[in-house]
Amino acid sequence: MTRPRLTLLGLPLDPVTLDEALGRLESWLDAGRPSAHTVVTLNPEFIMQARAEDAEQGGESAFTQAMRRADLVTADGVGIVWAARRLLGEDVPRAPGFDLASGLMRRRGAQLRVFFLGSKPGVAEAAAAAASSQYGVQVAGVHHGYFDRNEDQRVAELVRESGADLLLTGMGAGRQEMFNEYWRDVMNVPVMLGCGGVLDVLAGTAALAPDWTRRAGVEWVWRVAGDRKRWGRAPRLGQFVLLVSRQSRSGGRS
């Protein structure tokens, strides 16, 4: 029985297991076109960034709107699991972005046409080659993520013309979710997943966190500690803990 969607700190959250999430993605693939669904893998950084953008704009930001309109929002990390238990009294399973992408490619294999969009020039090509070799998927197309917003329509039309079944969009928090949401009807891809650094992991330019950190749900600690480029993101994690603690003390449920 499917559990109803939750609202965590003003954003949607679907309490689905990894298998349930993959089953839903496969049902969208089986439904065929016209069909366009967006998937968000929610983490503490998303929540803090969206709240900051909402405050700056004096209302709901495009990032927040994209997450609200997503067809599936899963818990990416242990921070979301902890917050849902603390604020909502709900046990929410994790369904991280890498596990969704790799799981779907493993299940569908050669039946699946994938467009790899994001990261630096050359990375999407390497990710596509690795995914084709490891999972047997068809490569619908590739494009780096370093393009200006005035090129969004061109890239969206490129994705549409590719006939992709799955779009992996790795352009960073906010940018990837907004791109998928805004251009969803143009691209008309059954499953569009904002996947962060998944392309880098597939390409071998970034390491997947060790199994023990993934089992414990604390791979973000390993990543932040091991990559100086991520150190600037650490304060947001601290802010998230404080936000959840304040909400919990005040009895907040939003």
Automatic annotation (TrEMBL):
Ranges annotated as spanning the membrane: none
Protein name: Glycosyltransferase
PANTHER family: PTHR34136, UDP-N-ACETYL-D-MANNOSAMINURONIC ACID TRANSFERASE (PTHR34136:SF1)
Short name of any one Pfam family annotated for the protein: Glyco_tran_WecG
UniProt xrefs under InterPro entries: WecG_TagA_CpsF
CDD domains given in the database record: Glyco_transf_WecG_TagA (cd06533)
One MF term in the entry's GO annotations: hexosyltransferase activity
Keyword Disulfide bond on entry: no
Transferase is among the record's keywords: yes
Alphabetic keyword roster: Glycosyltransferase, Transferase
Native source organism of the sequence: Deinococcus irradiatisoli
